[in-house]
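so the lab meeting is tmrw and i was supposed to have these ready like two days ago... anyway. pasting both below. for each one the top line is the aa sequence and the line under it is the structure tokens. i havent really looked at them closely yet so no promises
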Amino acid sequence: MSTPNIFAFMLHPIDLSDISRKFPLADRVPKGLLEQLIKFAPPVKTSHITGLKSPYGEAEGWFVGCTLTSEQMLKMPTPVVLKKIIQTGRLAEKLGAKILGLGAMTAVVGDAGITVAKELDIAVTTGNSYTVYTALEGVKKAAEMMDIDLNTAQVLVLGATGAIGAIAARMMARECRYLTLVARDESKLEGLAQQILYETGLVCPITRDARKALRQADIIITVTSSSQTVIEPEDLKPGSVVCDVARPRDVSHRVAEMRDDVLVIEGGLVEVPGEVDFGLNFGYPPGLALACMAETMMLALEGRFEDYTLGRNLTLEQVEETGRLAKKHGFRLAGFRSFERPVPEEKILAIKKRAREKQLELLHA
């Protein structure tokens, strides 16, 4: 009997409330003490994933938990955080995994998976290639739901000269007619604009003035490497769609609080093939996963046990290949997330309605 294709995917608590959901008694522990306790806690075998099946393969896996919150990962010394991630990766090895996906902040810390891959005896991926693919797929779907026509829309890529930004810009250039590129380095922007002109024939304006460009954009893909938020409520026009692929986030929480007329998404939820049981409720409908999880799963189904998306230099070829693998194995975009919560269709309809009201107000002002 052949050994099944086994994968693992690394989770971590976004904040302390995630710990309390899993362990209700944690609510009684003072916040400071709980932070200290989880800092020294061993990695956790969170759940067994079964039922992943496509016409071309089957796989099973494990969620493994790295016991640090997002805030701790940002504040603690990088070598200390990487040590915890590697320890959690060793748990995945013991569970028989042949490939490990790094989720949320574990994919961002340090050199984005390169050090972790060197220290482990199994393949590692951050899932960022399929994350980019689904983000762009999601942008197009969100634009359609918000009645934005790609032929007439002003599309903006903020942070366009970074690895993800450049790929996003090159892929969007095939889909739209008006694309503006924004970044701090003008010479790199010029180089990217030339590349896009050569590849697609599209002439892209470039600018370093993010504020002005944001106010004119209908669709924004934002992927800066800023440690601070760069998009505030006053920067956006009513009815715009913002896809925030950056980690840490580019879009301020204030946008969610103050702008009920714009749609902010941070990548898609993916329908997974087979009768998958994650053994864990992470707040999404059954059978749905994040794109980074889905990349790990599709590589396992394909029997591709090799380091895949690592570091910050993604390639167009890898992003497109994940799209082909997704289609082959039956992974499909199923919904949106915003500020780490699912966005139901009725919320999108309410945003569209409010956007129309605001647009009319502005017309009559």
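ok protien two:
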Amino acid sequence: MPKKYIKSLLIAIPLALIFSQLIPAFLYSDMATSLKIQYHSFQTRNVERIQVTDGNSMGNTVNNINNYGHGVKDEEQFFYVEDGLNLVRSPKDFGDKHYLIQQSSGTGISRLNMVEDWIFYSQGKSYNRMKTDGTQQETIFQMGYPLDVHLKGNWIYFRNASDRFTPYRMDVNGQNMERVVNQSVSDIALYENRLYYSYQKDEEGLLASVDLQGNDKRIKMNIPMKDLVIWENYYYFIGHDDYRLYRNKMGETDTPQLLVGDKVSSYVLTENDIYYSLHSHDVGYPGDGLYKMDLDGSNNTLLLEAKRVEGLSQLDHWIFFASSDKNTHLTQKKLDLLTDEIVDMD
């Protein structure tokens, strides 16, 4: 090889190594974040401006948001995801259902929230909204996979997968987007006027909370977790590393009570009981079986032997979910919390 080419290589290789280090640093820098937010604001500049009247209205429950938000409700109707692809509106007496979105294939729908007469939903990398009658569909976010999406009043809080899963917020028009916490997190939950988030620091798992502007940080527990639910002075959660279900009394930092010793796929906590599914060995770890137990982990009962249990959503005295019986196609089901009766919805 000629000497001039060797010389060029000796210069190019170190430069390439330097750029390989600089590019990731730039992508997650404040300057890059600012540019992304400006571009997002430009993309959503023509979205119709709406204003939510009640600043304390919640878009969905933490229970449902932990399970990908496959169901939500208003005073008269249920809205739920069917077959992972369709968005259905149904009266609460389960009369004639109406498809707001119906598709035989394509990108799945999840992360439902609603406020007033607007329903918000995730479809792939975008977050969208429409009127509850199916009109005025608009995209308000398309930076990439919003996760754990909470809505309160005029603000939407989520983990931004395009920015190290850091907590963000934006208004219901997709404007005024900003980081709430400059920290990669594994879970967020919104309770009253506090945003709770789980993260790792120096190989230690922590649960912290901030106010809704990202200030007044408080450490709550020294435990790695996800799918946090707060109920009657207890934190309920799935272990970040072992996927088992625990609860821990508020004010205690690192002494959780084990409720389920097997790996838990998802759970819903009601006033008196916990309904949950176990991890399966299938791709994507959908649930295996539907179980019920008391809040302290006692009286554990198998309610339904089924595969691919997913999308648990509590709507009034019902739990909606999908499952496959004997490895057949997924079917939508509902469980009556008053009787524990399970019936098909299809």
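from a quick look at the 2nd one: Residues 3-27 form the longest helix (25 residues). The first strand starts at residue 71 and ends at 73. will dig more after coffe
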